[in-house]
Amino acid sequence: MNKHNAGKQDLFAIADLAREFGISTRAIRFYESKGLLSPDRVGATRVFRRRDRARLILILRGKRLGFSLRDISEYLSLYDVDETRTAQVRLLIDKVDERLELLHGQLKDLETTITELTQIRDLADERLQKAPTGDGAA
User: Which runs of E-coded beta strand occur in 30-127?
Assistant: First the structure.
């Protein structure tokens, strides 16, 4: 299966989804165990539908953006309850705002740390420049 046909395909094997998204089948089974995916079963075989594939895309995007599985689960659960998606969009805005606030704080902390490390490095370089050479010619 290639990515161009993925949108037209109705059924997916776990291995197909794992390969398409570059994740392990174990990760997909983990998301299933957390109730984020609910594939059908044909005997012992998991059969994923387009809905599961779309949910997996949202799960992976949420993880990449730093959202917890709880946040992602809450977001996905609203998708099934609210046909207007209003509650889902409001929750998304709230979660994105929280994440942005956290990231801005982390960015400020990183900038402070970089400034301090640069100053320490400059002071250390100055000290080396002023220090007598260690060649024994004292």
Answer: 40-42, 45-49
* Euclidean distance between the first and the last CA atom of the chain, given in angstroms as a whole number: 74
Residues 89 and 61 in one domain: no
Query: pTM for the whole thing?
Result: 0.72
CA 131 vs CA 119, 121, 124: distances in Å: 18, 15, 10
- pLDDT tens by residue, 93-109: 999 999 999 999 999 99
- Residue found under tokens 């209003």: 86
* Same-domain check for residues 61 and 99: no
Range of the domain at 87: 82-130
76 in a structural domain: no
